[in-house]
Design a protein that fits this description.
single chain; alpha+beta; Trna Endonuclease, Chain: A, domain 1; 4-stranded mixed beta sheet; two-stranded antiparallel ribbon; 4 helices; globular
Length: 127
Protein backbone atom coordinates (compact mmCIF):
# COMPACT_ATOMS: atom_id res chain seq x y z
CA UNK A 1 0.00 0.00 0.00
CA UNK A 2 1.35 3.40 -0.99
CA UNK A 3 2.44 5.71 1.84
CA UNK A 4 0.35 8.88 2.11
CA UNK A 5 2.30 12.10 2.62
CA UNK A 6 0.91 15.26 4.23
CA UNK A 7 2.95 17.53 1.98
CA UNK A 8 5.54 17.55 -0.79
CA UNK A 9 8.39 17.96 1.70
CA UNK A 10 7.59 14.56 3.22
CA UNK A 11 7.45 12.98 -0.24
CA UNK A 12 10.75 14.68 -1.16
CA UNK A 13 12.42 13.21 1.93
CA UNK A 14 11.17 9.70 1.07
CA UNK A 15 12.38 10.07 -2.53
CA UNK A 16 15.76 11.39 -1.33
CA UNK A 17 16.18 8.36 0.92
CA UNK A 18 15.32 6.01 -1.95
CA UNK A 19 17.67 7.71 -4.45
CA UNK A 20 20.49 7.74 -1.89
CA UNK A 21 19.89 4.06 -1.06
CA UNK A 22 20.19 3.28 -4.80
CA UNK A 23 23.49 5.22 -4.74
CA UNK A 24 22.44 7.42 -7.66
CA UNK A 25 24.13 10.72 -8.48
CA UNK A 26 21.37 13.26 -8.05
CA UNK A 27 20.52 16.56 -6.39
CA UNK A 28 17.63 18.73 -5.27
CA UNK A 29 18.20 22.31 -6.47
CA UNK A 30 17.88 25.25 -4.09
CA UNK A 31 14.49 26.95 -4.05
CA UNK A 32 14.27 30.64 -3.23
CA UNK A 33 10.51 30.40 -2.62
CA UNK A 34 11.04 28.45 0.60
CA UNK A 35 13.14 31.11 2.27
CA UNK A 36 11.97 33.20 5.25
CA UNK A 37 9.97 36.27 4.27
CA UNK A 38 10.07 39.62 6.06
CA UNK A 39 8.10 42.85 5.76
CA UNK A 40 9.95 46.15 5.33
CA UNK A 41 8.94 49.51 6.84
CA UNK A 42 6.69 50.24 3.86
CA UNK A 43 4.81 46.92 4.24
CA UNK A 44 6.48 45.21 1.28
CA UNK A 45 7.42 41.55 1.50
CA UNK A 46 10.98 40.51 0.80
CA UNK A 47 13.30 37.61 1.49
CA UNK A 48 16.93 38.46 2.24
CA UNK A 49 18.10 34.88 1.72
CA UNK A 50 15.81 34.44 -1.32
CA UNK A 51 17.22 37.60 -2.88
CA UNK A 52 20.74 36.33 -2.25
CA UNK A 53 19.93 32.97 -3.89
CA UNK A 54 18.45 34.75 -6.93
CA UNK A 55 21.58 36.90 -7.20
CA UNK A 56 23.66 33.71 -7.21
CA UNK A 57 21.61 32.33 -10.11
CA UNK A 58 18.99 30.14 -8.44
CA UNK A 59 16.13 29.73 -10.91
CA UNK A 60 12.46 29.25 -9.98
CA UNK A 61 10.68 26.12 -11.15
CA UNK A 62 13.59 23.69 -11.44
CA UNK A 63 12.50 20.06 -10.98
CA UNK A 64 12.73 18.60 -7.48
CA UNK A 65 15.09 15.79 -8.48
CA UNK A 66 17.78 16.07 -11.11
CA UNK A 67 19.26 12.61 -11.60
CA UNK A 68 22.53 12.46 -13.54
CA UNK A 69 22.72 8.73 -14.29
CA UNK A 70 20.35 7.50 -15.54
CA UNK A 71 19.71 10.97 -16.90
CA UNK A 72 16.23 12.26 -15.91
CA UNK A 73 14.36 14.90 -13.95
CA UNK A 74 11.37 14.46 -11.67
CA UNK A 75 8.94 17.07 -10.34
CA UNK A 76 7.10 15.91 -7.23
CA UNK A 77 3.47 16.81 -6.61
CA UNK A 78 0.97 15.66 -4.02
CA UNK A 79 -2.28 14.37 -5.54
CA UNK A 80 -4.30 17.12 -7.15
CA UNK A 81 -1.43 19.60 -7.40
CA UNK A 82 -0.14 20.55 -10.84
CA UNK A 83 3.22 21.98 -11.94
CA UNK A 84 3.42 25.77 -12.07
CA UNK A 85 4.08 27.50 -15.41
CA UNK A 86 7.78 27.92 -14.50
CA UNK A 87 8.00 24.22 -13.57
CA UNK A 88 6.36 23.25 -16.88
CA UNK A 89 8.88 25.46 -18.75
CA UNK A 90 11.82 23.70 -17.08
CA UNK A 91 10.35 20.23 -17.72
CA UNK A 92 10.00 21.17 -21.40
CA UNK A 93 13.55 22.55 -21.53
CA UNK A 94 14.91 19.27 -20.16
CA UNK A 95 12.80 17.30 -22.66
CA UNK A 96 14.13 19.42 -25.53
CA UNK A 97 17.64 18.61 -24.32
CA UNK A 98 16.84 14.89 -24.47
CA UNK A 99 16.32 14.33 -20.76
CA UNK A 100 13.25 12.31 -19.73
CA UNK A 101 11.11 14.53 -17.48
CA UNK A 102 8.35 13.27 -15.21
CA UNK A 103 5.78 14.53 -12.74
CA UNK A 104 5.24 12.00 -9.94
CA UNK A 105 2.73 11.94 -7.09
CA UNK A 106 4.01 8.93 -5.15
CA UNK A 107 7.22 7.21 -4.12
CA UNK A 108 6.02 4.10 -5.98
CA UNK A 109 5.80 6.12 -9.24
CA UNK A 110 9.33 7.44 -8.73
CA UNK A 111 10.67 3.97 -7.98
CA UNK A 112 9.00 2.45 -11.04
CA UNK A 113 10.37 5.14 -13.38
CA UNK A 114 13.88 5.04 -11.92
CA UNK A 115 14.11 1.23 -11.86
CA UNK A 116 12.90 1.02 -15.47
CA UNK A 117 15.51 3.62 -16.52
CA UNK A 118 18.28 1.78 -14.66
CA UNK A 119 17.31 -1.51 -16.33
CA UNK A 120 17.22 0.10 -19.80
CA UNK A 121 20.59 1.77 -19.14
CA UNK A 122 22.12 -1.55 -18.04
CA UNK A 123 20.74 -3.35 -21.12
CA UNK A 124 22.22 -0.72 -23.47
CA UNK A 125 25.62 -0.99 -21.78
CA UNK A 126 25.64 -4.80 -22.02
CA UNK A 127 25.03 -4.77 -25.77
Amino acid sequence: MEQQYKNEDELQIAVAQYLDARKLHWFHPANERKTPVRVDKKGRYYSPSGNKLKAKGVKPGLPDCIILNPKMVIELKIKGNKPTPSQERWLNIFRLLGWPAYVCETLDEVMEIVERAINEHDKRNQA
